[in-house]
Amino acid sequence: MSDEFFMRLAITEAWKYQGLTYPNPAVGAVVVTQEGAILAIAAHQRAAEAHAEVLALKEAYKVLSGDTAIETCYDAKAIHHYLHLHAKELFHHCTLYTTLEPCNHEGKTPSCAHLIQSLSLERVIIGTLDTHAVASGGARHLPASIGICEDACEALLLPFKAWQQRQCVVFKWAQRLSGTIDCGTISSLESRRYVHAMRDVCDLLVIGGHTVREDRPTLDSRLVKGKAPDILIYSHHQEFDQSIPLFQVQGREVFIDNTLSRLASYKNIIIEGGPALFRETQSLVTCYVSFTAPSSGGTVPFASEHVNFEFLHVAPSGHDITIWLRKKNE
After folding, report:
1. Which of 39, 242, 317, 324 is 20 to 30 A distant from 18 in Cα terms?
2. Terminus-to-terminus CA distance in the chain, angstroms?
3. pTM: predicted TM-score of the whole model, two decimal places
4. CATH dotted code for 3-163
């Protein structure tokens, strides 16, 4: 198996958590033996929790040592400490693949680069370097090769770099194979859980006034028991039935505006919209995510104008297909 093959596994794993790790990047990691046997595949799942490299090393340690006591270590610091104490020379003939340069500082979690250095892995293969002023530089401490699948690893960082520079705006929609978006629930339960997990970490959710009046949504994160983001209802008509469920959710602000200027006050934004919002927000959107269900029906198409996209990642989500995209530069 080639280095590219193993890096692609890490990339695929990282995309499972895209949009869920804010304000951290989505990162994947794989650990293999000298003979090419896969010991672990992992990804960073949530900010303040263990990074991808640490989760992969935790699982690989368990496989190599047979020591299941490490399973009781959930906190990143506890995993680091356990591996420092017990791994000894276990990883000397192993290779670690990671989509992003291991972090070089101690923040909410210890330095991944320092842990990897202490374990003396034979090789560390890095997809792309970290440009973050505080976290970068980990490769200097490691037997690192850099740039395997670099473009694909950079694509993973698109939301992260956007909110580091200013803000990330993700436009999400659900459609059928026929391209329609109306007439009730479209996505599978797995897809809806994913969207709720995205809402849990976003600051602001934008939706059109027509959708609010027609669908009477709640727009919370109940499927993952998460928080409800603030809501911007983009509408030229300011009057809404206050019994619509989204107005009843505690701990959020609901704004009704006929402009999108309020987006400037937020960092991590999701737009859940149809044709009108798609048309009016194209200059603001960082990337798009579509959940396409294996069904037909409905009458309202998602969009009619001609727009060229670039696929970033495609994967199953329950019965649906999840597609991450960005607009092509014309």
Report:
1. 39
2. 37
3. 0.95
4. 3.40.140.10
